[in-house]
Amino acid sequence: ISRILVLCTASLILRKSNKITLGFNTMKKIVSSTILASLALALVAPSSAEKKLSSGLEDLFPGPLLDSKGTEVSKDTLAGKTIGIYFSASWCPPCRTFTPKLVKFRDDNKKDFEVVFVSSDRSPKDQMGYMKKASMKWYTLPHRSGPANALAKKYGVRGIPSLIIVSADGKTITKNGRGDVSGNPQKALAGWKKAS
Q: Model confidence over 4-13: pLDDT tens digits?
């Protein structure tokens, strides 16, 4: 933005030095238009500071990542955040008890924390129906996909619900995220960040 303003100012000085004089209102319009165009470019142009997914998280989530409507999204949405890998299903009573707590926790901390749902539902339709009914605004892996099965195996998930917490670089922080969210939700995220 500052480079554009400098160029515009230099252009005005050159015009003035060549005996082309502009009225005050004309100059005001040019400067206003330049500022508005610069702001629009800043909003639309990709920032070099945009976060990219770490190689550790890329290894954990090699396949597609879906939103709560089943649409594929960029995995870079997870970049820089602590991640909860949530193993759950709609048919599981303890899951239906814990899920509202996790939804509230995630929604209260969505700037620094995100959930990736690994479903044990009987079908993709049941998986998406559960997400909608429970107001899960987080991400999921395709139903019973290779990456979803690999995560269950990697973390030795034998029962649900289970919440595995990993750092922004993909390192395991705790396999007892469920206990942390249920027992001390106010301090859970700070504790995970400190441990990572």
A: 443 444 444 4
Helix (H) or strand (E) holding 116: strand 113-119
Start-end of H helices in 72-116? 93-108
- pTM of the predicted protein model: 0.75
Strands 139-140 and 72-73: unpaired
Q: Which two tokens stand for residue 107?
A: 């929604």
| Cα separation, 129 vs 124, whole angstroms | 8
Tell me the C-alpha distance between 142 and 66, whole Å: 7
For residues 73 and 108, give the distance between their C-alpha atoms in angstroms, rounded to a whole number: 22
- Written as six digits, the tokens of 147 are 């990456």
- Are 136 and 70 a contacting pair, CB within 8 Å? no
Q: Which of 10, 112, 21, 115 is nearest to 61 (CA)?
A: 115
| Number of neighbouring beta carbons within 10 Å of residue 147 | 16
* pLDDT-derived band at 108, boundaries 50, 70, 90: very high
Is-contact 166 159, C-beta < 8 A? no
